[in-house]
Design goal:
The chain has 243 residues and is α+β, with helices and mostly antiparallel strands. The chain folds into two domains: 138 residues, Jelly Rolls (Sandwich); 87 residues, Winged helix-like DNA-binding domain superfamily/Winged helix DNA-binding domain (Arc Repressor Mutant, subunit A). The chain has eight helices and eight strands. It is globular and about 55 Å long. It starts with a helix and ends in a 14-residue tail after the last helix.
Length: 243
């Protein structure tokens, strides 16, 4: 397979790709793989020779706690178009695993292909750098949200972010998207108990901000949800400019 079009959309939302850039991206070979819910996509503590891009579904960055291997902390969610472990291209190994949330399809690209890119395509190299910086900005914003928002507002911020990221690559529209997360997984992400998450979901429903059925979410009042969350998408760097 060729590189996912979602990743190309991720880049084109933020910069203009030359015909040469697009030709290389669409020609570079990738290996397709599917994963069942809970399966490890990228293992921790191993030097990798390829990097992984999301094609379908949702994945999570999962950290195991020392001395408590059955417990985990989720520090990131990855949507279609994301390079989930691009930093592993230059690091000796990863301190976390990437796991499938629901059914997932990914594409792997060999690191020697990325070496060719960095040696022969300086503009694309800068855009890979940009992608890792956006990933870091999302992580920082999660810390800010955890420190400043509580319960319903914190959940509202997560929903605003995920929808915005999906919409930016054409994987969601009309304020509708799927979030295949169990309440205990939401609890892991937000740092609450499943009971508190249940109350937060119910509160957003009672305010007529969202409709949530199974994995399907419809945002009924975007302005209201974003206002409650104090959501500002600046950290997602969605403005197109030359880099």
């Amino acid at each position: 397979m060729a590189i996912t079009e979602y990743f190309i959309r991720f880049l084109q939302r933020r910069d203009t790709l030359s015909p040469r850039d697009l030709e290389w991206l669409r020609a570079v070979p990738t290996q397709h793989a599917s994963f069942a819910p809970g399966e490890v996509i990228v293992p921790a503590d191993r030097s990798a020779n390829r990097s992984c891009m999301m094609l379908r579904g949702l994945s999570a960055r999962s950290h195991s706690l020392v001395g408590r291997p059955k417990e985990r902390v989720i520090t990131a969610l990855h949507v279609p178009g994301d390079f989930v472990d691009l930093h592993g291209f230059v690091l000796a190994g990863l301190e976390h695993a990437v796991i499938a949330v629901g059914s997932v399809e990914v594409e792997f690209i060999d690191h020697f292909e990325l070496v060719e890119m960095t040696e022969n395509f300086p503009h694309l190299t800068r855009l890979l750098w940009m992608a890792t910086l956006i990933d870091a900005a999302i992580h920082r914003q999660w810390l800010v949200a955890a420190a400043s928002l509580r319960s319903s507002a914190h959940l509202a911020h997560l929903l605003c972010e995920i929808y915005t990221r999906l919409n930016a690559v054409g994987a969601a529209s009309d304020y509708q998207f799927s979030l295949n997360l169990l309440q205990r997984e939401l609890a892991d992400i937000l740092g609450y108990s499943p009971i508190h998450v249940n109350r937060a979901v119910r509160d957003l429903r009672d305010r007529n901000l969202i409709r949530w059925s199974g994995a399907d979410i419809t945002i009924l009042d975007w302005q209201g949800l974003a206002s409650l969350a104090r959501f500002d998408p600046t950290y997602l760097d969605l403005e197109r400019q030359s880099r």
